[in-house]
Amino acid sequence: MRELLGIVLRREGYDVLVAESGRQAVAVLERETVDLLISDIKMPDIDGVEVLRAAKRVDQEILGIMITAYASTSTAVEALRMGAYDYLTKPFDVEELKIVVRKALERRQLQQENVLLKRVLQSAHEFSNIIGRSAPMLAVFKLIETIAATNSTILVTGESGTGKELVARAIHFNSPRRDNPFVALNCGAFPESLLESELFGHVKGSFTGADANKKGLVEVAERGTIFLDEIGEMSPMMQVKLLRVLQERTFRRVGGLEEVEADIRIIAATNRDLSKLVSEGRFREDLYYRINVIPIHLPPLRDRRDDIPLLAAHFVKKYAEQMKKPIAGITNEATLYLELYEWPGNIRELENVIERAVALEPTSTVTSASLPHYVCGNLPRAAVKTVPLPEGFDLKQHVQDLERDYVVQALKKAGGVQVKAAELLNLSFRQFRYYVEKYNLRDGRD
Question: So what CATH class is 125-299?
Answer without folding.
Answer: alpha beta
